[in-house]
User: What shape does this take?
Amino acid sequence: MTQGELAEKCDVAQATVAMIERDALMPSPDFLRRLTRATSFPAEFFMNAPDWEFPLGSLSYRKFSKLRAAERTKSHRLAQQSFELYEFLAARLKTPRVALGKMPTEQPQEAARLTRTLLGLSATGPVRGLVSRLERSGIRVFFLPEVIEDPDHESRTEIENVDGFSIWVEGAKPVIAVNGSRPGDRIRLTLAHELGHLVLHYPFHAEQDIEREAYLFGAEFLFPEESFRAELHRPVTLAKLAELKARWGVSMSAILYRARELDIVSDRQHKYLRMHLGKRGWTKCEPVDIPIEAPRALHYMADLAYRDDRSHRALADDAHLPLFWINRIFSAQAAPRRTEVPGQVVSLTDRRKNRSRP
Ligand SMILES: [Zn+2]
Assistant: This one.
């Protein structure tokens, strides 16, 4: 809510809310009662200072030129509360050690190869179960819902311009938040890209071209150059791109782009294949669905720490959060829609006959 919206719901002047936010005014017991009524959050939630510094780093957001302030604030806050819930549960359980390393002076491709090793992946071969691999390496992965509704369902914010962002909380706890309503291959690319930021850009050197470096890291991490060259033979065709997409979980467009970068296709071939992707509408919506793998850690930890609490009611009480909010965080950690069989290579002609998608 904006200050104005909250002031209206609490029936106080906006200046009062502004002063309380700035720590210039101590909220009265009466205001606290109004606040809990207006937000459905318990008084304890407002009485306790947050346990964690969860900074909205300029690094995480500089790429989102189109991002509206509401999208930015709400996606950040939701990630923060997912994180706090994670830490609340983690304090009651034994959780995985962080296996990720910071390599701010390393070349992006080399850092990607080292990171594959640190995460227990082979030097070559597709990364299967990327999300669970990251979670088991101590990285907090959270899905954000595409639409964030206010508690009373009066207003909704679509976070359509957010793909994902990442931060190290207090320098030691890596977090990646991604928009869970994107196609599976795009989510994988975002995860690998943000992983690159975590590995390469803490601390950040001014001369670094961070988006380019995160791209190079992500490309190498998901599809190592050695394998890429071994598997993408000439002539490069759309069918070949589709086959590699199914096997590696990387989009046809991304494979084609990299093929140009590595000089596997000529400029002319690249343009020709792009044109054919475009003609079929595949630059907007590609064939071969990559299954979405949802984060499991929050669900898993809640099940362990609260064995007999399937409704999450006890968890909500202990964490000083309203039940609807807990449920919102949990329900975002699920793979939406899409029912395709993973890893199946479907012939392109068959697919086009059977599908009516744009
Ligand atoms: Zn980036």
